[in-house]
Design brief:
Number of strands: 12
Order of helices and strands: HHEEEEHEEHEEHEHEEHEHHHHHHH
Radius of gyration: 32 Å
Oligomer: single chain
Strand order of the largest sheet: 3-4-9-6-8-7
Largest sheet: 6 strands, mixed, barrel
Helix content: 40-55%
Structural class: alpha+beta
Shape: elongated
Distance between the termini: 29 Å
Length: about 425
């Protein structure tokens, strides 16, 4: 009677034997021990690099998107007849969806705004600028985080304020400081000018937007444009899931599609991804880099595990011959070495996850690696600690590695008991 025709419910022979090979340190040969340690180290370093790469790239994308959203929100509603400049056609703020649209699940805030291009002129410099007029419903969280000097404009009082918030870039270009007066000229018929008081200075690191945007009271722009108090450039909407705004954009579109103004104009809905296609395409290039790095790391990890598994099989040739002589079939022996490979991969994954997580946490909270915000839009290497991404990387690496290890494990079928039992 063959020994290995036992009830599998009583004893999982393949799993038991694999554990003995992997975790029995007293019997480990020097050659296999070195190879296994190298293989586990390669897997650990590979998964750590993959985790860090995905976290940094995702963190960088989120950081840039957050700054874009800080200037224009996730979703905007404007006049459908609007052109591509900041000289906008007005719409009425008295809409059926304002402010009740926040009752839709996933929408947390809506605010009104106006924009107006102008020119700042000093004795020696001339600089173009876009004034963004805001009202008491404006969400100041983003600019509050990036305020480096002074205070935010007070637009909530009944009296129109002359406060204006400009960027550090604009202040340095024109030689302004907090508390200075700043004259802004508007090219129209007839030309107009306004004198503002610089109440604060902000810096986001997005130079192209920083040097262009200044924040003031919405009532200034309404008066300059000869608009009534209920006429605005549009609405800005903030949503909970900024990574995938298209679904919420469609919901907003459904709410405003039937709105037609008294002058016959209609509203259009857009989002920050549609309005910043150049930046979006630029950021998508990083996804290609991530894919290349992940592919290379997986290939290197798999090759190292194949080498380790072949070494184990060669060193266990006598054992394989004995097991076959006792009645074990090829599938049972192959499963021993697949279990063995899986244990080694899991060990590497655990070490790699711990290593990657420690590095990411140190970078997130200690900012160990700084960056030039003028080039990268952020002042340090950004980190996104998304544990779902970690889990998916682990599962993907494990599945691919175990699947590929089937090939070297098939070498067991070529081993004949009679030729291997005396193999030393």
């Amino acid at each position: 009677m063959q020994i290995f025709k036992l009830n599998n419910n009583l004893l999982n022979f393949s799993l038991f034997t694999a554990k003995r090979i992997t975790f029995n340190r007293t019997n480990k040969k020097k050659m296999s021990a070195s190879v296994l340690n190298i293989a586990v180290s390669v897997v650990a370093v590979g998964i750590a690099v993959m985790i860090i790469t995905v976290s940094v790239v995702t963190g960088f994308k989120h950081g840039v998107y957050k700054k874009i959203i800080g200037f224009q929100a996730h979703i905007t509603i404007k006049n459908r007849d609007i052109n591509e400049t900041y000289e906008t056609l007005p719409i009425s703020k008295n809409q059926s969806f304002y402010p009740g649209i926040t009752n839709i699940n996933g929408i947390n805030h809506i605010q009104i705004y106006t924009t107006k291009p102008g020119i700042i002129k000093t004795k020696t410099e001339v600089q173009g600028i876009v004034l963004k007029g805001v009202a008491s419903d404006y969400n100041w969280d983003f600019l509050k985080e990036n305020l480096i000097l002074g205070r935010l404009p007070d637009v909530s009082s009944a009296k129109k304020t002359n406060d204006i918030l400009i960027s550090e870039k604009t202040a340095n270009l024109l030689g302004y400081n907090e508390g200075d007066k700043m004259d802004v000229y508007f090219i129209q018929n007839p030309p107009k000018a306004r004198r503002f008081n610089i109440c604060g200075i902000y810096k986001t690191g997005m130079d192209e937007l920083d040097k262009m945007i200044a924040i003031c009271d919405i009532r200034h722009i309404q008066k300059i444009n000869n608009w009534s108090t209920d006429q605005i450039s549009g609405f800005e909407i903030f949503i909970d899931d900024f990574v995938n705004p298209e679904e919420m954009t469609q919901k907003v579109q459904d709410e405003v599609a039937s709105v037609i103004s008294e002058d016959g104009s209609m509203l259009q809905v857009s989002n920050y991804l549609r309005d910043n296609t150049f930046i979006v395409q630029w950021l998508k290039l990083s996804d290609t880099n991530v894919a290349v790095i992940l592919t290379l790391m997986i290939i290197v990890s798999v090759l190292s595990m194949i080498a380790a598994l072949l070494t184990i099989i060669l060193e266990r040739t006598t054992m394989i011959g004995i097991l076959k002589a006792l009645g074990a079939d090829n599938s049972k022996i192959i499963s021993i070495f697949l279990y063995n490979g899986m244990f080694l991969i899991l060990k590497g994954l655990i070490i790699g996850n711990v290593l990657g997580f420690i590095i990411l946490v140190l970078q997130k909270y200690l900012k160990l690696i700084p960056l030039n915000p003028d080039l990268y839009y952020v002042n340090s290497v950004p980190v996104d600690l998304n544990f779902l991404n970690f889990l998916l990387l682990d599962i993907g690496t494990l599945i691919i590695s175990v699947f590929v290890l089937i090939l070297p494990a098939l070498l067991v079928a070529k081993i004949h008991p009679a030729k291997t039992i005396n193999f030393k």
